[in-house]
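Entry 12.
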Amino acid sequence: MLVPGDVGPRARAALAGVVIVALTATSWALWRGDGGSNAASRDAVVPGRPVPVDRPAPRLSLPRLGGEGAVRVGGADGGLTVVNFWASWCTACRTEAPELASLWRAYRARSVRFVGVDYGDRTPAALAFARAHGMDYPSGVDPNGSAGDAFGIVGLPTTFIIGPDGRIRYVVTGRIEPASFRAALDSVLGGAPGEDAG
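Predicted 3D structure (tokens):
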């Protein structure tokens, strides 16, 4: 039997997934209940859609998945950074990973940096997952969930768009919706839309 202090990253992510589903159902019921006339209800969190935020990103250094050295996550570096929390055991992450890899290829010419954070995973499974889904951008490892706690994730996958000033501009809970994610990236970049990422 688990007591609260014994809950590991997988159990926390599973519990958070249940909470997200409940919150989504509640938001949907509120939105439908007033016939769509309440703007605040329509702006509720929708899984997969970027939600604007404005808070400092934690600055972390994580061991690099499958390699020596470290991966820097968060903080101000003068460029736009996408940070995606994922795990090989996360079903939505399997569908999302190729979409993120495609976005990375479309936006790297505009100096957008993509970083993965492998959350509560085993290294062999994580490496196989990254190879299978074309994740060529670097990933750090977060075996005990401390990086996820620092960012305040509530489930997997969770993706952050961090501006050049080191502030989180958008957060996406759940699998990204590529079109709205591109729009969020373009709004932070302040320029012309990126190439279609498929």
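Annotation: Helices lie at 9-33, 39-42, 91-107, 123-132, 146-151, 178-189. Residues 48-189 form a domain with the Glutaredoxin fold (CATH 3.40.30.10).
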